[in-house]
Amino acid sequence: MQDFYSAIYSETPAHSDDIHDMIIENSDLEVITDSGSTRRSANAIKSTDFIKLKPQRQMFFMYEKPTKK
Description:
Number of domains: 1
Largest sheet: 3 strands, antiparallel
Strand order of the largest sheet: 2-1-3
């Protein structure tokens, strides 16, 4: 989170509460604690947490060609 804070605060005048709200609301991101659990509240985000992209679902399985055996 420290690297993220350093980068984002030089780009925007937004308040940290606003940034935390947007992180939690973003469906592609999740905030992970030091113990490995997921944060669900913007008010609980700490500087020791880290931001992770959520796993993407594969959508192209229906377009794969059948394999010949």
